[in-house]
């Protein structure tokens, strides 16, 4: 059955020739080479898609909804269209066009459900998002076109504007063209290093100075410092450093501001301002591998034939399936229209290429819908390849995955398992760290922790960055090593830099980058000893046993407590002097209306009271010794290590990891119909020693992952 993206299911206006749509909305601005915004948006019909597909597309949300409750039927939570979220869009255009920065940071935030931002039923469209897609498509095509030209000339230069990069602090200035790192922090972007060799890194930077020292910055590749530079300039200046790269692949280039100072008493304020980051590569060994759009030369192929070749090549890759002849013809009608309006080959080709990126076939993962009354049916080979790649990479399938799908081999369980293991060894599997662990364990929230600076003056952006990187590196170790994921709770190691080591009271590793260290006395180690996790489940001025208990129950056991009943009062304010938070909370629990939930939540939270609201260790609270005892499921314990031991032995923890991975992989809340799949994945996960790769293999081989949801019969 056709979806709303199929021509026969579109309303009649969708069948208009692009030239008819063009002339109906044409404006005088076209002659200046910039068609009217409305005209451009109609080139490939996104606004029409929003009305044509209203039954299949969810309504856009302006703010995050409450966590999604599992539907009773698989089809209740499934959609044949799932929009790429911001992370998926960024990764997809990176793999499609080369280095692109993070253009989706300008898009409206994605809503979350079941703990993740890839919930199909919530990823709606809005006018603001359509406009962002339109503007971004033009920039991406222009940049990729320019990069292709540089690649064909010899050594390629890739530049990413600072406002498109990823920042841990600061803000854009000067009409959004400059990024101001106003405190110690990073600006990062991912670049592809096609081969080993000598590269030239460049940054256009300057500073607001605060004597006696100039602004200082470090450059890092994949977390390794490759340069330390003074920035004495007060106006834009290009800084360049040669770097030897020993292996090809995607690497993260980071500019780090290291010596911030601010003193309002003397009006001194030192900041690092950045315009762009650039990588100049050596002459490529194969020009063809460097070109993403300009796959032919119009002078030799002929202009129209070359434009068709470019458009078809991009559409085949961007749409994650072969473009049909009528679809290529529709795209080429845009090229023809621009040429007939008197403009040249380059502008016409670019507009046709933009249309590829404005197509619903690019912006959505499309699963063919079935007739009402149809039971579960297997995904097509291309649909399975796409579901797998967005699960493990948050990006499109690569050539090997696509080739196996087209050969009809990907559905073979042995082949599918081998592909999962291959993909986990690929650098693109970092998406699991950023997007799966980043949301499951709340690591994305760490940079936004709002600890009261008057009470916790050490909690600055540099420390929060180290806390986030600790959690990311910790999870990454379980992806890459032969280690049981149950040790996420009680591992005897963690990752710290000098700053975080001081905060934890651990020996310094002698590095500004996080480094693996032993946790020693057991105060740290495991996710419940990480300051980033503890601080995100706290209030700005104090700890919250309730929030911490809720975090453990919901994130680690999948036993989310119900919301408090209406009218429940906050913690009492009239308490004896010197009372600890535990004593105050126990007064609150004396209220029968509050006791039900608190009897489960509070003992977990109390066991973590040795960590203050910013995750630092403490022995006292308000002058009294911390009481970290508790009872969970009838077992008494004391402190975070004993809590971790109890949770590790609870089968609910492993099953919760199964549920979290399945929900993330399917892009929807789990349902009653998924329970057999949960049991299958959980059993295989256990048989594999609870290793994360075995969990991910089991998800990919599961019935729910490889099949469409059944479609209820029409009433």
UniProtKB/TrEMBL annotation:
Residues 13-35 have a biased composition (Basic and acidic residues). Signal peptide: none annotated. Residues 306-366 form the DUF1595 domain. Gene3D superfamilies: 2.60.60.40. Residues 379-506 form the DUF1592 domain. Residues 1-35 are annotated as: Disordered. Pfam families: CBM60, PSCyt3, PSD2, PSD3, PSD4, PSD5. Residues 524-621 form the DUF1588 domain. Residues 82-145 form the DUF1587 domain. Residues 634-705 form the DUF1585 domain. Residues 201-283 form the Carbohydrate binding module xylan-binding domain. It comes from the Bacteria. This is DUF1592 domain-containing protein. Residues 1-11 have a biased composition (Polar residues).
């Amino acid at each position: 059955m056709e979806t709303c993206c199929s021509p026969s299911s579109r309303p009649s206006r969708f069948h208009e020739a692009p030239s008819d749509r063009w002339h109906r909305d044409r404006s005088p601005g076209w002659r200046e080479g910039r068609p009217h915004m409305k005209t451009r948006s109609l080139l490939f019909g996104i606004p029409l898609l929003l009305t044509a597909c209203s039954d299949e597309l969810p309504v856009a949300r302006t703010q995050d909804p409450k966590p999604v409750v599992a539907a009773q039927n698989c089809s209740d939570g499934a959609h044949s269209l799932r929009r790429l979220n911001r992370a998926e869009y960024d990764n997809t255009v990176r793999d499609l066009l080369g280095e692109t920065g993070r253009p989706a940071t300008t898009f409206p935030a994605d809503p979350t459900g079941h703990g993740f931002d890839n919930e199909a039923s919530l990823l709606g469209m809005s006018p603001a998002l359509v406009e962002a897609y339109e503007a971004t498509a033009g920039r991406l095509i222009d940049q990729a076109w320019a990069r292709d030209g540089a690649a064909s000339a010899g050594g390629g230069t890739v530049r990413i504007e600072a406002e498109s990069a990823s920042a841990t602090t600061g803000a854009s200035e000067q009409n959004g063209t400059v990024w101001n790192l106003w405190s110690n922090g990073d600006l990062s972007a991912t670049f592809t290093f096609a081969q080993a060799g000598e590269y030239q890194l460049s940054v256009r930077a300057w500073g607001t100075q605060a004597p006696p020292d100039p602004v200082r910055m470090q450059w890092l590749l994949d977390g390794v410092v490759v340069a330390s530079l003074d920035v004495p300039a007060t106006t834009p200046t290009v800084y360049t450093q040669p770097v030897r790269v020993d292996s090809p692949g995607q690497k993260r280039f980071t500019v780090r501001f290291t010596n911030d100072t601010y003193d309002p008493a003397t009006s001194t304020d030192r900041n690092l301002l950045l315009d762009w980051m650039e990588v100049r590569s050596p002459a490529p060994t194969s020009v063809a591998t460097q070109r993403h759009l300009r796959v032919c030369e119009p002078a030799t192929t002929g202009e129209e034939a070359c434009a068709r070749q470019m458009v078809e090549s991009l559409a085949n890759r961007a749409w994650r399936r072969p473009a049909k002849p009528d679809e290529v013809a529709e795209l080429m009608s845009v090229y023809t229209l621009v040429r007939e309006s008197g403009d040249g080959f380059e502008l016409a080709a670019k507009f046709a290429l933009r249309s590829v990126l404005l197509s619903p076939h690019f912006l959505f993962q499309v699963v063919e819908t079935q007739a009402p009354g149809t039971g579960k049916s297997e995904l097509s080979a291309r649909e399975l390849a796409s579901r797998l790649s967005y699960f493990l990479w948050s990006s499109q399938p690569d050539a090997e995955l696509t080739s196996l799908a087209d050969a009809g081999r990907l559905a073979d369980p042995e082949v599918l398992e081998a592909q999962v293991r291959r993909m986990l060894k690929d650098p693109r599997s970092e998406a699991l760290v950023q997007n799966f662990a980043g949301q499951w364990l709340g690591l994305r929230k760490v940079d936004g922790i709002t600890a009261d600076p008057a009470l916790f003056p050490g909690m600055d952006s540099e420390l929060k960055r180290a806390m986030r990187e600790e959690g990311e590196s910790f999870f990454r170790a379980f992806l890459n090593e032969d280690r049981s994921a149950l040790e996420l709770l009680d591992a005897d190691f963690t990752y710290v830099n000098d700053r975080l080591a001081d905060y934890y009271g651990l020996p310094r590793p002698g590095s500004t980058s996080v480094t693996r260290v032993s946790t020693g006395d057991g105060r740290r180690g495991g996710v419940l000893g990480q300051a980033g996790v503890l601080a995100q489940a706290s209030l700005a001025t104090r700890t919250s046993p309730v929030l911490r208990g809720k975090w453990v129950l919901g994130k680690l056991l999948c036993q989310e407590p119900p919301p408090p009943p209406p009218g429940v009062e906050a913690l009492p304010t009239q308490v004896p002097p010197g009372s600890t938070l535990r004593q105050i909370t126990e007064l609150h629990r004396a209220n029968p209306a509050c006791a039900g939930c608190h009897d489960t939540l509070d003992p977990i939270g109390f066991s973590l009271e040795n960590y203050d609201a910013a995750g630092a260790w403490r022995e006292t609270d308000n002058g009294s010794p911390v009481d970290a005892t508790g009872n969970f499921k009838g077992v008494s314990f004391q402190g975070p290590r004993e809590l971790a031991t109890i949770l590790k032995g609870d089968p609910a923890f492993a099953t919760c990891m199964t549920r979290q991975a399945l929900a993330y992989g399917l892009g929807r809340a789990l349902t009653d119909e998924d329970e057999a799949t949960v049991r299958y994945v959980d059993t295989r996960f256990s048989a594999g020693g609870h290793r994360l790769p075995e969990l991910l293999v089991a998800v990919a081989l599961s019935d729910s992952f490889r099949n469409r949801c059944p479609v209820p019969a029409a009433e």
